[in-house]
Write a structure and sequence with these properties.
Elements (H helix, E strand, L loop, with lengths): L9 H8 L1 H7 L9 H19 L3 E7 L5 H13 L25 H5 L41 E7 L4 H8 L8 H5 L25 E5 L8 H12 L5 E5 L12 E3 L25 E3 L2 E8 L7 H13 L13 E8 H4 L3 H8 L4 H18 L3 E8 L2 H8 L3 H7 L11 H6 L4 H8 L8 E5 L4 H10 L10 E4 L7 H6 L3 E2 L2 H6 L62 H5 L1 H6 L20 H5 L59 H10 L8 E2 H10 L8 H10 L3 E4 L8 E4 L1 H6 L4
Helix pairs in contact: 1-2, 3-4, 9-12, 11-12
């Protein structure tokens, strides 16, 4: 094919011929004019990469390989650093832009036989007084950068849709013709394979260790195409190196990759790096006008689902074995993954919660198997992903308004969050119905990506509902350090190296670290009740009071294990020590005040749960028992009861008007527990329409009238469509929920 006329300026070539036409013209003669700079920056990065990661094998994907410049540099780098290793495959001499060391002989001199014989040479005469001491000369190539490290096995896969002929001619290695669009569509084969992985397959695809894109990523035209490419690569590779003579393109952290510090610190870039001198931005290698920016995946991709499942299995084995009441009931396990911190394969995991996604389904099944094997019986478990709605909307290409309505829009902030929805009491009934937790608590809870004070606040809200027992809660440690409040609340943790590697570059949590607002903390406690008489006995989510914590005759009992003694010793102290966290009900793990130490140790860690079996004791046989607000002393005799303040008589609210009853019932059905987060107007209107109680007037007029009468409170979000409404304290008392 004709090479065509081209300019030394790539910008002129692109403007004259177009990108595709230009590379078709030079598909056999293309050479990168920045070869020297590319060689220096790539060599420096590989030295640091091997020193820090110490890989035994490096599987490289040379994407948009050109004429094989990056491949040739990597082969020469290995040969120079480990001379004793096997020589690399034979390649054609590089078409470098370096000037020749000596002028080439002319044709006449080659034809003359006399000139072929070497002539005697003599050294030049230098006066003794003019001699200078010899100085050591540093060479650019040294024998070995890391002599103590073994030579890694290097394998390279190359692809370029235009210049594959030039790559094969220069390197003598195969080169496929996949484009950026093909890679984004999932057509990239695994290392050593010739066919792309099966679509929707459950098998984990072997990832590449390093993807090198030289002077080509900026050619992707639209940001959506760039996001699709980078998101797919983040699931198929561990490292990404982008080289270019400029700073384009702008890759966002939410696209699957995060900037990395290529210095000896070797850590996620946080703005304090000083690499590249004045020409760089601190987190890039800049040499010979060539920039290299390394990146690391920011979320768990499809390659890490198995790691997550194995990590959950390890976590389950570290928890004490739960004894169900009655014994024939299956175990209940729950894995809570904070998507804002780790962002697993978001679309697959979210679809898996709706009944699809083979990778997510495999994760659910592995969780059930792990718990079933640990408990010796069947397990019902689930994996719940929480993430900020705007982030999920961008990742799933769904309008944020639609996703907000799908999650019913419960939030105390202007940005609804599904994390807030479940951690508040608004959707606990939905979670109970989905997991069949109506009559019993969760046996195992594994927290992945829970690191902040807000996580501790939400977890403390679950403890008084009797759904969560702190002795059966465990954290999976990641590279993100956990807040001291969360460590106090859940001191038991497991460190799984493979899972930590996958989460090592998790971005910091941004949207869930705000201090709790009045809607999140203490919601449902009227101002008149503060400082009044002690609260009533703790109520279960499905109604009724907690029975006396005495083991039934047919109920097996167990003593606290050594692994859970540290948590069961003082759970309330950990809860009350968290700033901004209020215990709405006494802890269920306190020892009865009138039992001695021996009898107390015979009690189960959790109170017996009511059951409908034939052998269950009658309700009258177990008198109601009210937990004290403070822990009793260790003496055998009960202490004298402290005088309690006289209860404050609350004014009896007037009856609810008939026109507002459907509205208040709807708000209570959306938030059955003590907390009442606001709900979007659209969600309430949809529920009223389903119940056949939609008012004839506009929702804004109807809610405004209800607020004027004191039954609800309303507010407007940060933009149109975010208006919210919630039941007032007066409305809760009038409906018998005060």
């Amino acid at each position: 094919m004709l090479s065509g006329k081209s300019s030394n300026s790539m910008r002129d070539n692109y403007g004259t011929h177009g990108v595709e036409n230009y590379y078709r013209m030079v598909q056999e003669s293309y050479r990168n004019p920045h070869y020297l700079g590319l060689k220096r920056v790539l060599t420096q990065f590989m030295d640091q990469y091997v020193a820090q990661e110490k890989p035994k094998r490096i599987k490289v994907l040379d994407l948009a390989a050109g004429s094989g410049e990056a491949t040739e540099i990597l082969l020469q780098w290995k040969a120079a650093r480990w001379p004793s290793a096997a020589p690399p495959p034979a390649t054609a001499p590089p078409a470098s832009t370096e000037p020749p060391a000596a002028p080439a002989p002319s044709a006449s001199s080659l034809a003359s036989p006399a000139s072929a014989s070497p002539l005697p040479s003599r050294p030049p005469f230098i006066p003794p007084a003019r001699q200078f001491p010899q100085r050591a000369v540093s060479r650019p190539t040294r024998p070995s950068a890391q002599p103590s490290l073994p030579a890694p096995e290097l394998s390279i896969v190359a692809t370029d849709p235009y210049t594959a002929p030039a790559y094969r001619a220069r390197t003598g290695l195969p080169c496929s013709e996949l484009s950026f669009a093909d890679v984004a569509a999932g057509k990239l084969p695994a290392p050593g394979a010739t066919e792309p992985p099966a679509e929707g397959g459950e098998d984990v695809v072997e990832p590449f260790d390093l993807v090198v894109i030289s002077f080509a990523l900026h050619l992707v035209e639209t940001s959506s195409e760039l996001w699709a490419l980078l998101d797919q690569l983040s699931k198929r590779a561990r490292w990404l190196c982008v080289t270019a003579p400029h700073k384009k393109p702008d890759v966002k952290d939410s696209w699957g990759w995060r900037r990395w510090d290529p210095s000896s610190a070797w850590k996620p870039a946080d703005g304090t790096e000083r690499v590249g001198g004045e020409q760089g931005d601190g987190a890039e290698i800049v040499l010979e006008r060539v920039r290299l920016r390394p990146r690391h995946p920011t979320h768990l991709g499809a390659i890490s689902f198995r790691r997550l499942a194995v990590g959950c299995s390890v976590a389950m084995s570290a928890l004490p074995r739960a004894v169900p009441v009655p014994r024939d009931l299956p175990a209940r396990a729950l894995v809570l993954v904070d998507g804002n911190a780790v962002l697993p394969d978001r679309s697959n995991l979210l679809r898996g919660a709706q009944g699809g996604g083979l990778a997510s389904y495999a994760l659910h099944e592995n969780l059930r198997r792990a718990v079933s094997q640990h408990c010796g019986r069947e397990c019902h478990g689930t994996v719940m992903l929480f993430a900020d709605i705007p982030q999920l909307a961008i990742a799933l290409r769904i309008p944020a308004e639609v996703l907000s309505q799908f999650s019913r829009g419960f939030s105390s902030t202007s940005t609804p969050s599904t994390f807030v929805n479940v951690m508040q009491g608004s959707t606990l009934s939905t979670m109970n119905g989905h997991l069949a937790f109506h009559a019993r608590a969760i046996d195992y809870v594994v927290l992945v990506g829970w690191t902040t004070d807000m996580h501790a606040h939400w977890l403390s809200n679950l403890v008084p509902t009797t759904l969560v027992n702190l002795s059966n809660v465990l954290r999976v440690e990641t590279a993100q350090p956990a807040a001291p409040s969360l460590v106090k609340l859940v001191p038991k943790s497991v460190r799984f190296h493979g899972l930590m590697d996958a989460m090592s570059a998790a971005p910091p949590v941004r949207d869930i670290t705000d201090p709790p607002s009045d809607h999140e903390e203490g919601e449902g406690i009227d101002h008149e009740e503060i400082g009044a008489s002690p609260r009533e006995p703790a109520k279960k989510a499905n109604g009724g009071t907690i029975a006396t914590p005495q083991p039934a005759p047919s109920t097996p009992t167990r003593a606290p294990s050594t692994r859970s003694s540290s948590i069961a010793s003082s759970p309330d102290a950990a809860l009350r020590s968290i700033p901004g966290v209020r215990c709405l009900a006494p802890s269920l793990l306190e020892e009865p005040p009138q039992l001695d130490k021996t009898a107390a140790q015979a009690l189960p860690l959790t109170p017996p749960r009511p059951s409908a079996g034939a052998g269950a004791p009658a309700a009258a046989a177990a008198p109601a028992f009210t937990f004290p607000s403070a822990r009793a002393s260790a003496s055998t005799s009960p202490p004298a009861p402290a005088p309690s303040p006289a209860p404050v008589a609350l004014p009896r609210p007037p009856p609810v008007p008939e026109k507002y009853l459907p509205l208040l019932r709807t708000l209570l059905s959306l938030s059955p527990l003590a907390s009442s987060p606001p709900a979007l107007w659209s969600a309430v209107g949809t529920q009223l329409q389903r119940d056949g109680a939609l008012p004839a007037t506009k929702l804004s007029v109807f809610f405004g009238a209800a607020q004027k009468d004191g039954w609800v409170s309303t507010g407007r979000g940060d933009k149109e469509g975010r208006e919210w409404v919630r039941i007032s304290a007066r409305g809760r008392r009038a409906m018998g929920r005060g």
